[in-house]
Amino acid sequence: MIKESDSKIFCSLKNGSEIAFKEVYQKNRMLFLNFARKYGLKDEDIFDIYQDAYIAFYENIQNGKLVELKSSIATYLISIGKYMILDRLRKNKRKVNQFVLVNVSDIDEQIESFDIGMEELSQEQILLQKYFGELGAKCREILTMFYYKKMNIKEIKEEGNYNSDNVVKSQKSRCLKTLKDTFKNSPK
Amino acid sequence: MMEKEELIQDYFLGNLSSSNLELFHKYLEEDEKFKAQFEYEKSVQKVIVTKEKKVLKSKLEEFDKEFKISNRKKSFVWKPLSIAATVAVLFTLSWFVYTTYFSLDTEKLYAANYEKYPNTIYSITRGGAIDNSLERKAFQAYEFNHDVKAVELFEKLKKNKDPEYLDFYLAQSYLNSNKTIKAILIFEEIVLYEKEFKTESLWYLSLAYLKNGKLDQTKQTLRKLLKDGSYKKNEAKVLLEKLE
Predict the structure, then answer these.
(1) Distance between CA atoms of B212 and B185, rounded to whole angstroms?
(2) CA angle, A176 as apex, A174 and A177 as ends, to 5°?
(3) Residue B109 CB neighbours (<10 A)
(4) Beta-carbon separation of A148 and B52 below 8 A
(5) In A, which residues are within 8 Å of B53 by CB distance?
(6) Cβ atoms within 10 Å, residue B212
(7) Over the stretch B10-57, which tens digit does the pLDDT of each residue have?
(8) Do B48 and A144 touch (CB under 8 A)?
(9) Residues B89, B106: Cα–Cα separation, whole Å
(10) Does A131 lie at the interface with B, CB-CB under 8 angstroms?
(11) Model's pTM, two decimal places?
(12) Would you call A159 and B181 a contact, using CB atoms and an 8 Å cutoff?
């Protein structure tokens, strides 16, 4: 059952409202903390996981993977958090309680399609990140719109005030190429 | 080659149809160049995602800090009571935030406060009959509220000569032609680099944020204006009170 207020807030999150971003985070913090404490994690770790879960939830709204709520916002946060808690327990080589695995909710399938990962960058990618930071603002903007916000060419055209689809495409290719060339020619 | 580029593009947008997905995998196996390009773009994506996540994470860390500080103050309360109190506070707070912000008509508030800055730079009537300079045309368009035209002319003018005041009028014109994001960027730059019309820009920047529903930024900017400027001080005070 999705409350009307959840739908409204979801809409604000989708539109990038900073206030909704903060409010939803604050509102669900205690709930998450209480849920996660049963797994014997330290509060510090739980706060950290809550942040990651919240970011994953928010990003998947922003990049259009989560278009409509099938459940309450709290359920999403807890379900995403659950994956992350399990992951953390495994990494800490702790025994994973079986009941956690059985406890599958009906939105788990949807969540599996989300981008949740927080993999570490390789040495090369760290370097690439440095050169990305040195690109012009326009380049960083267009690449972020495409690869992070998953905006299509038309959307980028409008948001970035480009004249035509082709201008967007060639600008994007040019930026990718500049980055690649700088990276290739860099002292390693 | 276009086809291959589009395949990669659709992959990143999650738009690959099943037949194209097959083709995509075929190229990945058979075409070294295609594979290299795809892997490069994958790395670019990872780099950007990591960077953006970091930005969000540091925002959340700030929220947590605020939360911990406010929690410490009431830690002496008996625990179940404090949980109940927290729930109650969060509930009323969120209700309050919700009714104050979400029902706030920012467009209306913007319209009530926005007033176009007058042209104080270029006297349209000067220079007798034969003044056909680009600058005159630009400010004329500005005065006549032909804002899209004004944007075009100011941009053109900026290519030849670029006095600081142009940015301010360009941002005004963007704001009036509903290109708020563009206007914000320019006003921010004027403030950051302390260009001409800096204080005025703080006022218009807060209005531009308001127009886009960015209330946190609106308030932050208004506070900055009240702290170090004299322009529109009273208006800023009243507006800030309405938002808080």
Answers:
(1) 13
(2) 65
(3) 18
(4) yes
(5) 55, 59, 118
(6) 19
(7) 999 888 888 899 999 999 999 999 999 999 999 999 999 999 999 999
(8) yes
(9) 26
(10) no
(11) 0.57
(12) yes
